[in-house]
Specification:
Layout lengths: L2 H19 L6 H21 L9 H8 L3 H12 L3 H10 L1
């Protein structure tokens, strides 16, 4: 599978999970659906051999997936207070 397509799919999955996890009071059906989506994402990520950093900010990942590496580094620096080298190394590790 093409790496750009892989990252696009991963970005879409992250967006879907993030949007669903933001729902206030979920009923049992929504919780079950979220668990199924989570398992599917885990299976796809494992199949593609992608390393996922769970504590990464979804906005930083979104910028990186969109090819906006400099913006991702800048956002991470603002959020974490890291210097330029630390932020660059972190974003590149994603």
């Amino acid at each position: 599978m093409d790496i750009a397509l892989s990252f696009s799919l991963l970005g879409l999955m992250i967006y879907l999970i993030a949007s669903m996890s933001g729902v206030g009071q979920r009923d049992a059906g929504q919780s079950a659906q979220l668990r199924r989506l989570d398992r599917k994402v885990d299976a796809i990520v494992e199949h593609l051999g992608i390393k996922v950093v769970d504590d990464a900010d979804p906005k930083v990942l979104e910028l990186l997936i969109a090819g906006k590496k400099i913006e991702a580094i800048k956002l991470y620096r603002e959020q974490s207070g890291a210097d330029l080298k630390e932020a660059k190394d972190y974003v590149e590790s994603l």
